Each structure stands twice: as C-alpha cells, then as structure tokens.
Amino acid sequence: METISNLWLGLETALTFWNLAYCMIGVLLGTAIGVLPGLGPTATIAMLLPVTFGLPPVSALIMLAGIYYGAQYGGSTTAILVNLPGESSSVVTALDGYQMARQGKAGRALATAAIGSFFAGTVATVLLAVFAPPLADLALQFGPAEYFSLMVLGLIASVVLAHGSLLHAFGMIILGLILGLVGTDVNSGTVRYTFGFAEVSDGINFVIVAMGVFGLGEIIGNLENESTRTIMSKTVTGLMPTREDVKRLAAPVLRGTVLGSMLGILPGGGAMLASFAAYTLEKKVSKHPEQFGNGAIEGVAGPESANNAGAQTSFIPMLTLGIPSNPVMALMIGAMIMQGIQPGPSVMTEQPVLFWGLIVSMWIGNLFLLVLNLPLIGLWVRMISVPYHFLYPAILVFCAIGVFSLNNATFDVYLMAIFGCLGYIFRKLDCEPAPMLLGFILGPMMEEHLRRAMLIAKGDATVFLNRPISATMLIIALVLLATILAPAVRQKREEAFQEEG
Amino acid sequence: MRALKLLSAAAIGIAIYAPAFAAGYPEKPVTVIVPFPAGGASDTTARMTTQKMQESLGQPVVVENKPGANGSLGAGQVAKAKPDGYTLLVGSIGVYAINPVLYKSLPYDPIKDFDLLTVAVRTPNVLVANPNFPANNVKELVEYLKKNPEKVTFASSGAGSSDHLTAALFWQKTGTTGVHVPYKGGAPAITDLIGGHADVSFQNLGAVSNHIKAGKLKLLAVTADKRNPAFPDAPTMEEAGIEGVEVYSWQAVAAPKGLPADVKGKLEKSLTAALNSPDVKGKFSDIGFEVVASTSGQFSEFLSQEISRWKTVVEAGKITADQ
C-alpha cells in the first residue's frame, strides 16, 4: 500500500508541467549527446551543473537523470550506425549492431535497441520503487574480494566477445590489461608507464581508447575502400523488427534486463559489466553462436536491455545510501549538495517528493525516449546514405570535441589520434578491439580490488574462497573457462568459422 | 567601411590600453581553474564562491575543471598562466600543502609560483568506524590498536591524501600502527566502511554526517579545535586525550605570482565579500563547510605551517609517492 501512495506522490511531482518539460529537455539533450560520438553524459552534466542551481532540486535532478539515461539510449545509435561506441556499455552493441547496419538492417537494430531499452527501463524502475532499500544493502555485501572475483568472471567471459581466433582474443585482452596499467598505482601512489606525461598519470580515459580504436580506426579502414561502404547503405530493409525478430529477441531482452538490473546495483563498476555479461550470456545460450559478431539480433537486444536496466538501477546506491556508482552519479551527488540536500539514507524519508518524483520521472523519460526514437529511426537510417566523404569529417570533428571535453586537454585529442592508428593496424591484423577494451576496463579494477582484498586479509589468499559470493563467482568463472578451453568446444568453434568462411 | 575602421581602431585601442591600466580590471571573463573533476569539494567551493563574485566584479567568472595527477596538473597550468587576474586557482589542502612534500617533481611551487589570496573554507575531519567495530571511543581504539598491531584497517581516499596523512599523524601521536587501505577517492572508502570491509577512517565531516545520523557509521572524535554543533556528543581529539591531531580539510584561492597590486586588491575584496555574504555562508554551512575568508598574509603564514607539519609526518611515517 505504501508503495502505491509513494508512487502516487511521485506521479504528482513528475507530472507537473515544468517537471515534464525538464524531463523532456533532459532526455532530448541526452539523446543528442549520446548520438554525437565522444560527447558523454559526464562532460555534459558537468557543463550543465551550474545551470541547475537556479532550478528547484527535483527538476534539476530529473533533468540530469534524463541526460544520463538518454545518453545511454543515444549512444547505441552511433554504435550501430557508424561503429562508434561513446560509452563503455555500447561497445558490445557495436559488435552486432554495426554488422546488422552493414547488412541493411540498421532500422531493425535501432528499433530492437529502443524497445529493449524501454522494457528494461520499465522493469528497472519498478525494481527501484519496490526494492531499493534491500537491494542497496545487498550491494554493501560486495567487498574487495567479491569485486575481484566478479572481475575475473568478466575477464574470462570477455574471450567470448571475440568471434575470430582465440589466440588473437587472448592477445588483445592482455594488451588491454597492459594499457590499463598506465597511471598512478592506487596502493603506493607510484606513477607507472606514463613516460613523464603527467596527463596520463590518472590513467588513459576509456573514451579516448574507444574513440581511437573503434572510431578513427573504422574511418581509416572505410576510406581505404569506400566503394564497399556505399553498397551496404543502399539495401535498407524494413525499419521495424519482423515477427520472427520479435520472437527471437523476447528472451534476450528479459535476460538482459535481469542481468543489468542486478549488476547495475553494484557501486564498483557493476553497471559497466552489464552489457558485456548480457552479450556473453546470449552467445552461450544461443543455438547459433556463430551468428554472433555477424549481425545477430540477440547480440543487440540483450546488451541494450542490460545497459539501460543497469543505468536505472545504478541510482539505487546513490539514492538510498548516498554512494555514487559511477562518475555521473558522483556529479548528481554534487548537484544535490549544491542544492543543499545531503545525499544519504535520509533522502528517502526526508525528501520523499524528490525521491519518488525522480523515480517516476525516469519511467516517463523512458517513454519519451521510445516515442522520440521510433519515428527518428527512419531519419537515422538515411544518415548512413550520406556519402562517406561528407560524413567522416563530421564524425572526426565530433570525436575530437568529445575527447577534448573530457578534461579540457588537447593532449587527449593527440592520444586519440595515436589510438586511431593502432586501431587501423588491429584491423589489418584481424585483431578485434572489443576484448582489448574489456581488458582495459577490467584490468585496473581487478588489480585494485585484488590488492585491496589482500591488504585487508593481511595477505591471506583464501579470502576469495571463504566468502560465499566470491567463491561462487570464481566457480562460475572456472566452468566458463573449461567450456572455452575444452578441445571439443574448440573444435566446434573452428568448424563454425569455416562455415562462415 | 568607416564603421569597421572605427571599430578596429577602438579594438586596437583597447588592446593597448588594457595592460597599462589594470584599474579597469576585469574587462573580460575571469577563469577559475579547479584541478579536480566537477562535483568534488574544490569544485563546489569554486562554484558557490564565483557565483557571488560575478556580481561584484561585473564580469562572468567561469569555472573550468582540469583534473589530473592529484590536482597538480591544473595547478601547474595556473602557475604558468599570465598574472593578470584572469586566471585563478581553487585548490585543496592536497594541492597547496601535501603534494609539495610528497612529490619530488611538481610542476609548481605553492610558495614561489602563487600569489596566495585566501583560504576560503575549511571542514573538520572526523574519525569514524563501522558500527560493529569493537572500539566505541578513541581511548578504546588506541588500546585495541596496541593489542592488535598492524591489524586494524584504515580506509583512505588515496595514497598521500589528507585522510591518509591524518591516519599517519594519529599513529605517530598515539604510538600505534594500523593497515592503510587506499581507495580511489572518498566515496568508495566510505562505502566499504559502511559495508564493514574496512574498520575505521578519517573523513570530511560533510561526507559522512548523514551516515553517522543514520547509524551506518560510528563517530569517535572530531579533529577540530571545538566540538561540532551538529554532533555535540563527539569529543575533539584533544578532549579524547590526543594532542596535535587537529586537522582540517581546506580549500583556498590563489593566482599566478606577480598580480598587479590593484588587481590583487580588487580580487581579495570581491572574494571576501562573496565568502562572507549570508547566503553563501549559509549554503556552505549546510554542507558542513566553515567559511574562513582569511587575508593573503594569514594564508601565507598558515600555508608554511601546514607544509612544515605535513613534511614532519611524511618523513616520520616514511610515506612515499614518487613520480
């Protein structure tokens, strides 16, 4: 009963004219920056923070939240259309989404992403409304040992991302791990592998690597053979998923939603893993794993649902505990502080209008996004038919602006250029960048949690097996590793590739 | 055509005119560099103060975040900027007092490269523990530490952070030891403290006050010179029997060395007025910050005290964070 009266209070708040307007501005802006490569929600929210001072706190947070999940939405558009993942979560969407676009199924991929995201957003909002406090307590159970084991699981699962040679995938993961070492060591404060450049002393930003390796690498590759690219755009078939598509994507959307909702709650980068995990799961349960990487619709539906669900549930630790689960949430906490609200467990009881208004607004925002994006698909799809020599300079400029906006540093733009060259070399060598990116994201976190867990356990390595959550994840990782390495499975993998030929 | 000529003549005129007569300062927007990401304590301080400064300066004051290398990247840029009053720095105790004693090569020297303007705000640190931790006050904690050397975990917001050094200072003053567990920033450290994965921590009062009120963290002492009105039951370190562990986190404003005297005067006046205005003061106190608004002379004196104090702690604790 209480939940219903709370939701009613939220509806009353969220449905006022101004709050609806701010919600709409937020998601519109979010979609726009999400679509523009490189410009991410973190930079946008940081820039807009001063603007929100003049607004009432509820409206300010509704708008900022709209920017955040709107950007998750828009990010997949660029990933699908031009293979440019601006957010870590859209890296996997690019894998199959871009392949679908190349086959003329861009509209279906975009619609799948939109519908999956809406469904996931709705479920996650309900979760947020009903279970926020107990879920937040569950998140607190995750200590360094649990996070380490989760990262191990993630890293092993990342091998599945590759659809080419297993050896190449391992090599790329290790390269990613090495790149992740650059920067300040958390434990000792020692700076590693920066070659004297203070600009990378906090590590290399993910967006720089992703923009360079995916975006610029793709551009160079496309310019090399522009003719093949124009062919692809001429054969756009159907904007909406077919009935068969819908049948294929229902289960992945459900699984992605569950997985994303769970991982999103974890403050230590869980949401980042959500889309990767969903992709891995889909490929594992699929009857046609060989289609993954070649335009499998499940490979878009699962991860997209997962990342949107994760984006919603990552509000849980922020709203109920005052704990930011990612840089965007840290900014939201900053915005609350500026408004004179102390984020923490008391927000729910002392500011019910803010808490419930925000939650209900997220669902309304998701609805906005669906209504906004479905008609836009036709427009987006036409975008690929723009001749590439007009399109790529624009993409380049937006990438440069986006990367610059991270730290207001030109150094980052040069760094992106270097990664662009690397990305081109990887293409030539048939090395897929996705496993490298996952290694790059997971490596530093894994190291951090491993060393912290060992520090707290006074050097006792059994801590990873003594804690049930940690042990469970290590066992799953072991099983997964076995299935990957089992010769029979490997044989099957190779056969699958030859079929694709 | 004539209008264009006139306009360009005027423009040249202004360009020549500007540096000679700084009395016209400010004639264009002032940039405030915050060497940390948006949303942190330095950023909040800068944004709250500059909003008010715009009114007295009559020009926009723009906050620009230049994060990196514990704040030394942005601070280094300010040190190299032109001392014309159009580039200012809002930095923390770490930028001004701790980085200089911790790092051998730093792109700035806080005393030689900056005209120190004012210590804007400060907030006391507090010693907090997970509610299930056996010790309920400082005395019990010291006894527990002595019985269990190298056992109790002290979470901090990073190697070489002010809370790390406060823990080191605490060990030195009480003759105890603990395990330092650094995190990437205060938030994950507080999360693990609440979750019981780490035992105790020194944190900014503002960052943990709500968790203390909600009973998720146990407040053992404040590292201030007097009790905090929000938590009147928590003793100061000195009342708890430990001298010399009085630590504040502070945020201060500086400019590149060599500001023209009138520009400096104008900035100081505008800063003090903004910081002391009732609404800004009220907003700061809402988030647990206390407005200091010291003069530049007081800032210089205070900074040399802070530097020499942390130097002793770093040397005694053999703390290194080499570049």
Overview of the structural elements:
The complex is a heterodimer of chains A (501) and B (323). By secondary structure, chain A is mainly α. Chain A has one domain. Chain A contains 23 helices and 2 strands. In chain A, strands 1-2 form a two-stranded antiparallel sheet. In chain A, helix 3 packs parallel to helix 15 (327-338), helix 7 packs parallel to helix 22 and helix 18 (388-407) crosses helix 19 (410-428). The radius of gyration of chain A is 22 Å and the shape is globular. The relative contact order of chain A is 0.18. Chain B folds into 2 domains: 2-122 and 248-317, Bordetella uptake gene, domain 1 (D-Maltodextrin-Binding Protein, domain 2, 3-Layer(aba) Sandwich); 124-222, D-Maltodextrin-Binding Protein, domain 2. Chain B is built from 11 helices and 10 strands. Chain B has helices at 2-20, 41-57, 72-80, 93-102, 138-147, 162-174, 186-194, 205-213, 261-276, 278-286, 296-316; strands at 30-34, 61-65, 87-92, 114-129, 153-156, 179-182, 200-204, 218-222, 248-256, 290-291. In chain B, 44% of the residues lie in helices and 19% in strands. In chain B, helix 6 (162-174) links the parallel strand 5 and strand 6. Chain B is α/β, with parallel strands linked by helices. In chain B, strands 1, 2, 3, 4, 5, 6, 7, 8, 9 and 10 form a 10-stranded mixed sheet that branches. Residues 9-21 of chain B have low confidence and may be disordered. Classes of the chains: A mainly alpha (501), B alpha/beta (323). At the A-B interface, helix 3, helix 15 and helix 20 of A face helix 2, strand 2, helix 3, strand 6 and helix 7 of B.
